[in-house]
Each structure stands twice: as C-alpha cells, then as structure tokens.
Sequence to fold (958 residues):
Amino acid sequence: MASNIVKHENHGILSDADKVEGLAIMMNPKSVAIVGASQNPDKVGHVILQNYLDVGYSGKLYPVNANASGKILGLESYRNITEIKKPIDLAVIAIPAKFTSELITECHKAGVKSIVVVSSGYAEIGEVKLEQELIDLANKYKIPLLGPNCLGVMDLKSRVDTLFLPTFKIDRPSIGGVSFVSQSGAVGSSTLDIIANEGFGLSKFISYGNASVIDETDILNYLAKDEDTKVILYYIEGVKRGRAFIEAAKKATLKKPIVVLKGGRTEAGSKAAHSHTASLAGSYEAYDAVFRQFGLIRADDIQDFVSFSKIFVSQPKCTGNRVAIMTNGGGVGVVGTDSLYSNGLQLAELSEESKKALKKALPPIVGVNMPIDMAGDADDKRFSATLDIISKDQNIDAIMAITLFQTPGADSRVASTLIHYGTTMEKPMVVVSIGGSYTGVHKMMMERSGIPVYDSPNTASRALAALISYSKYLHRMGK
Amino acid sequence: MASNIVKHENHGILSDADKVEGLAIMMNPKSVAIVGASQNPDKVGHVILQNYLDVGYSGKLYPVNANASGKILGLESYRNITEIKKPIDLAVIAIPAKFTSELITECHKAGVKSIVVVSSGYAEIGEVKLEQELIDLANKYKIPLLGPNCLGVMDLKSRVDTLFLPTFKIDRPSIGGVSFVSQSGAVGSSTLDIIANEGFGLSKFISYGNASVIDETDILNYLAKDEDTKVILYYIEGVKRGRAFIEAAKKATLKKPIVVLKGGRTEAGSKAAHSHTASLAGSYEAYDAVFRQFGLIRADDIQDFVSFSKIFVSQPKCTGNRVAIMTNGGGVGVVGTDSLYSNGLQLAELSEESKKALKKALPPIVGVNMPIDMAGDADDKRFSATLDIISKDQNIDAIMAITLFQTPGADSRVASTLIHYGTTMEKPMVVVSIGGSYTGVHKMMMERSGIPVYDSPNTASRALAALISYSKYLHRMGK
Fold:
C-alpha cells in the first residue's frame, strides 16, 4: 500500500502533483492509444474502441494489437505502441496482466503521458508481484497510472470513455456538474446508468480499481480543483492513505460538497469488502466521526447518490430547517409533514403578512396554514400566487412543492411556474411528484431545468436535510 | 362519526353486512348510472363516463343529466335516474353537493343498489348538515353509499372505474392481487399511477373520502373476504370506529398481509391530517402498538406500498432471517450486506456441503463465501449453478440475487434463470437490479413473471424484513 512508494529511487518517483496532473491529461487527452483493440466484438479492447467511436471522441485514436494487420474498426492499427511515433496523451491497456509490465516500458519509449490499465488479474487475485512491477515501472518512468482492475475514466465533455461496457447496456449521462468516483466497477457502472436517466448531468467518472499508483486521495485532490466539478460522489470500501485523504477532504469540502457511500459499514459488510478489494475497512464509527468532523455527506444507499446530487448541484445553500410545504394533494402534504420531522426538519410557520396576502390571493377553499393545501383543482395561477408570497417570507428557509400531476389543474404550465420560482428565488426548493408517464414527462422537464424532483416526500426530506447539514458546516467554518 | 348511526330508525339502518354486500355490488356492477354525465369535457361526469368507455366496461351504462337532450358520448341519456326503468347496480353521483339529497331519494325510487358520491362540498368544508342528510337518507333507504368527497372505486377485473382523472394523466395498473384503500384521493391517485408502472397488478382501488356511510372498517371486512385480493394496502389518517377496525384487522391479518401507511405520525403531521380530513389522529405510538400487536405491516412512505406489495404478492412466507447474497457485482454485494444488517437481517453462512458443491461447480475465481461474488463475467450458467446449490441449503432462509445487467455476461438468459428459480423454489427470492433502459427491460421481464425486483439493496432488505416479520407473526399465531 502506501509503503510501496518509498521503495523506489527518488529521482523517478511520482509526486502527488504528478498524479493530479496525470489525471488532468487522462481526462482530456488529445490522443489515445488503445492497446488490445480488436476487430473481435468479444474482446474488451473492441468494446472500448467502439465506445470511443460511438460517443464521438474527437481526438486521435490509435488501435494497438500485437496481431494487427490492416485496419481495426476502420482505423489504422499498430502492432506496437512504439510504432505510432506521434504524441500519445493516454494509453488504455486492455491486454492480459502478464504482458503489461513489458508494455509499460514500451509506453515509456513511446512517450506516453498517462496510462489506464483496465485489465484485471493482479493483487485482487493474489498476483501481488505483478502489481508491484506495475507500480515500480510507473514510478521509474514517472507515468501516472490508473488501475489496474478498473473501468477507467469517462469525461462527458472531452468524451474520453474507457468503459468496456457497451453503450446499449449502460446509458451515458448528459454533461453536468457531478463527478463520481468509485472503488467498485459494479457500483460505478450501475450508478452511472441510473444517473443517465435523471435530469442532472455528469462531469467525470473515475473507477480506480486497485489504486496501485493513483489512489482515491489523488483523485480527490484533482476533483477539488476541477472547475467543471460542482459535486463529488465517492464509493469507497477503504482508504489507502488515511491521513492524506482526510487532509484532502478537509480542504475539498470547503469548496464543494462530497457525498460518500462507505461500503462495509457493518461487520459483515466490512468482511465482504475485505474479500472484495482487500480493503482494511476499519471501524465505520471511526469513518463516520471523520465524515462528520470534516463536513463530508454520508450516503446510506446507492440511491442517495442520485437524490443528494440533484439538490447539491442545483440549489443554493440553506442554514435553516424551517420548510414550507405547498401541495395540490392534501394527503401527500400530511405524509410530507411527517417526513420533515423524521429527517430532523420542521414545518415552517407563515408570517402574519404572508397569511394575509395568501387569504387575499387564494380562493376561500384554501386554508392559509402549513402545509398549504391549494386543493386538487389548483392551476398554475394558484401555484404562482402561493410561491410569490412564500418565497419572500422570512420565516421560511426552504420550500417543498408537492405537485401531483394527476389532478385536473396540473399541467406543463404548473411545471413552468415551479421552474420559474425554483431557479430565480433565493431559497432552495424541492419538488415531489409521484406518478407514471404523464408525471414523468413533467419531472424530466423540471429536472433538466435545474429543479430537483423526488418521487417520495421522504427522499426529498432526506436530501433537504443533507443540504442544510452541509450548509451549516460551511457556515461554522466561516464560509 | 359512529354515533351518527344510532340516531336512525332501526328498520332502515344499514348493518355492517349490508355495507360489505354493497361494496361487492359496487365493485362488480352489471349496470352503472352516471349522474352528472356530460358532453362537456371540463365536467367530472364527462371524465368518468369517458373512462368507463376507455377501459372497456362491458355492463350497461346510463348517463344521467338534468339538462340532457340526445346522446352523451354516443350513449342514450336520461334527464332523471327514475326514467331509466331498468335495474341499476351502481349510481355514481357527480353533481353539486346541494342537489345530492334529492337525488338519493330518486335513487331509492329507481331501485339503485349502491351509490358512490364523488362530489365534494360536505363536512370537509364545514357543510356538516348536508353530509348528515346523506347519511340519514342512505340509512333510511338502506342503500350502501361510498363517499362523499372521494375518487370512488376501481376494479381491474370488472372494469368499474369511477375515477374522475383522465387516463392520459394517470396510468391504469394491470390485473393483479393487490388491493389499495386510501382515505386521501391524492395519495390514492399518485400511488395508483406508480403501481401501474410496476410489474405486479392491482385487484381493487377504493377511495372512501369522508367515510360517511361505508368506512375503512367495512372496506377491510369486504377485502378480507375477497378472493382476488392477496395483499391489502391502506393509507389512513384516522379511523372512525377504532375498536371495530382493530377487530376487523385482527381477523384479516391472519388471512392476508395488510400494509398501513398512517398519515399524521408526527405531531405536526397529525395537525395537518386534522385540517385535511378532520381525522382525530390520536397518538402514533398508540397506532404503532396496535399495528405490532395484530401483525399489521407498517409503511413509512408511499414508496413502501410498492416495494412491500411486490414481495408479499409473489413470495412464500419465511420465518428465518438468514439471507444469502449472490451477485455479479462485488461492490454492490458489499452494500447489500450492509443493508441486511441495517434492517435486522443477517448474512447466511453456506453449509459445508454447499461450499464443496460451489467449489466444484464454479470457476476458481469465484470465492465460495458469503456474499457469493460470481464475478463480472458471470453468465446464466453460473447463476444457475449457484442457485441450484443455495436454493437447497438449509442454512439459508432467503436469497437476494444482486444482478447487474451492465456486465458482459448478464442478458435475458440470466433473467430467465432468475425467473425459473424464483418461481419454483421454496425460499423467497428478491432481485436487486440497478440501472437504466437495458436493465429496465429485464426488470419488467422478471416482475411480470412474479419476481420482486428492487433498485437498491436497502429497499430490497426493507421488503424482506417486512415479509419475515409478518411470517413470524403468523407463525406465533399458529398459522
């Protein structure tokens, strides 16, 4: 682990700064060599090359295969990476583990600037020596290396995409402000797939596998500085350099929210994590204490990645927990109220001024108490009148608009009204819309416009509570 | 409330049995009169009649409108219900509240067997006298009446559908074994809409509104006996006849699972419930104690309705909590293990026999420990070999198959394998599949075949815990 590094001669060793720089090159390469590229669709190298073509990568692509003759997927191919004789920003390595050491030396000769090894068959199956060779060579030649045993990297803007999962099996997200780091390829790919079906977009995905050279701390240092990244998601089972990670996190959380799902929170889970990634998970209590102390946001499930991301990426900070609920569905307002208190929030009280204004603006059927039940026939005008008043009420810190699209008055004008207020007012707003096809269309319309929409009051309240807790941390830290 | 009933002359009063019988007629009527039916698409009576036509109701339909001339939506119309002169099993009333009392008398004259009043404008807005008239007349004429201020009833088999929500705004579920009862129309309609997009189907939906005559206890008595209903879902804010409801629930839970979401669990929620349905909610602790004592299953959120329904409607009972996890995605197996313990379950240990058999049947890369990580290249053969062995292991009470469809080996043959074992073995099985479009197709394939599929390990564990808790209750009660 960390002690591996000190074994090397000093002159060649990769510094933390080298690795951060390596990640920057890896995520935005002008040229990519794919070693193991193949015409055979069953090969990993085929899927990777095909994906580069599918997503429209605009840099240079060099397929490399020792048995190559002629073109691979229409591109000129090379038998050896040294034959390319042009600058290579990134080499993606997808060949059997036993051949990789030799290849690293060839990468050095070819002037490769960064390497992603997606191949598996190293420390994770006991081949510790093979992995050590990889580490030694990367350090010797000073080439930042990600992996092995990983999915690699995806950047939605530069269109780098080393995932060896076909695009028909896993949807690709749109461009956005969330970056996601996963120690597990499985958690990574399945989470990517659900993010792709949400309204918010992704900036970068990094699956780092065995973290032999570049580890979770380097990635955190890189993403903390990355301007396109507004929110960072982490799935980790263990941390290689505990102290360094905490230092990095401490700085990073002052700049942007970091949501962490820790695999191995329970004793049995920790045992499973150990046999999965050989992570020495440590007690979760210790992790949890550190998370709290440094303002990291704790996720309890994969779905939290999605529900937390959408509020953090779009909504303003909020240090108060008085939440106004407005709804066109009375019963869901009741469930919503319950959900606030289950998550440490409270129902706001309307100011006398707001009460008067609401009485004037709304029909007599609408009671001017919290939660505001605008009734089942509420249309965009009633939503607008209500939002206009409560968005200015100083007794209210945040707004939960529970909007059911099954009712007669709810249509795309209501969605537009929510988008208008949700994107222009100073308070954070979450929308809860529960339903099927018709609701889904309106949900997507709002989400693509930067309004976080949830399919249950409890999920919305959990997300709001996370936003408020992080905002309070920043406030305590003088930010 | 309950005391209203004793005011009436005894000879006309509706008994509990009358109301249960009334519900049976209401849910499967051979003829329906829709009072307030209209050619004007803005009218509730138009939407109801159109829905009956849309869903293909095969009984007789009689549109009634005081101003009718000629046909309404192609059907012969009547100015007064007494003009129909044919048997009328159900009258759906969708006219202003002030006209309903007179109409009940006309229904009596016309020999109507049951009434659903969808109109609002009664006790819920302070018009207590108007509601009392309705109660008095229904009792006097001995006509079981549902409502007012409700969405009414839906039966997927008989195709009765009094919902005044257009079919394009709310998807209709397929036919299945779950019946859903909601005091709130909003919770009802939005939940219906999400159920429609799940693989399991619905038997009946009953929105009872003010519960003036038929109340939640009558409905429970009816559904407990209904053979098509395998699982009952309840959204309630308050119960009119506490003791009677408990008695009914006590009997019903011995026959079928009852999942209850209680609106107004917190003080503020309870206050909101009071202003919503004038329900005197009572302390949630008291409710919770009763729920526990009589084996009712507590839902904490609307999404629990869906996740609990799918396991109860399809999986066998299970009194042990030792859960085997098998997965083709290591990291999600770790998260899955954590989720078991967060929900009071535990990871099963393989018997020595199973370990030997698995070692023989699976490639060396697969460790034969829990959770079983079949590796990312697992195909249907590996799933099948694993299931074959663990389905027979006496140390295992239930199986969680975490199946990621992003991986190369996972395809519809894997889904078929899961369906085969999930529907033939004696242990309950849940599948966790996290993802987008490609995953969604396989999820629907499995759900339609009776396999409960969840989009997060935590949701799956919650559902398993609910199944086990209910099974243990039945066991304690000697069932």
About this structure: Chain A touches chain B through 80 residues (CB under 8 Å).
